[in-house]
Structure formats: structure tokens, C-alpha cells
Amino acid sequence: IQRNRTLEVRFAGDPNGGVSLIRSDPKVRQVIEDTRSCTVELEGNDVDVQRLLRQLVAAECGLISFADKEPTLEDVFMMVTKGLVT
């Protein structure tokens, strides 16, 4: 059902450098920022996720967590209903 990957990324300090790097990735579709974290919607596969992770680590931007975010039941419902309405 899910077309894109959703990732949760957390930073130890100021996330601006890491978020800027994430936003510059051509496979990134959306970034929702929080105080020291962000949720990333990425159009891609495992190779694209690995590439983004390597870039964040190499940039030494204070990365402390990087993980797939599993969709909630509500997320799945919204994806399904959006697909049926169009």
C-alpha cells in the first residue's frame, strides 16, 4: 500500500545541518521538522535509505537515530481511502 518510505531521524543538537542535507536529496518528497527530529518521506528503496544514512553520518550532523516509521492503522486507512477517491 505504501508508495514511499517514511523515516524518523533524530539529532543530538541543532538539526538544521542534517535537515538541510536531507532536503537536498532528490528522492526526498517531504520533511516535517520538530525540535531535534524530523519525519522524512522518501521515494526509494533500501539502497536510497542507505545512501541517505551514509551522507548524514559523513556530514557529522549529530545523528542519534535513523529508522523506518511503520504506518499506523489510521495512516493505512488514509492511504487506502485516498487511492479510492481519486
Structural features:
4-stranded antiparallel β-sheet, alpha+beta, 4 strands, 40% helix, 86 residues
Summarize this entry quickly.
The chain has 86 residues and is of the alpha+beta class. The chain has helices at 16-23, 46-58, 73-85; strands at 5-11, 28-33, 37-42, 63-68.
Structure description:
This protein is of the alpha+beta class and 86 residues long. It has helices spanning 16-23, 46-58, 73-85, and strands spanning 5-11, 28-33, 37-42, 63-68. It has a 4-stranded antiparallel β-sheet with strand order 2-3-1-4, with helices on one face. The longest helix has 13 residues, at 46-58. The chain is globular. The relative contact order is 0.26.
Poorly predicted runs are none
The biggest beta sheet, please? 4 strands, antiparallel
Query: What's the Cα radius of gyration?
Result: 14 Å
Strand elements, count: 4
The helix/strand order is: EHEEHEH
Beta percentage is 25-35%
Q: What would you call the structural class? A: alpha+beta
Instruction: State the distance separating the first and last CA atoms.
Output: 15 Å
Report mean pLDDT, rounded to a whole number. Answer: 88
Walk across the major sheet and give the strand order. Answer: 2-3-1-4
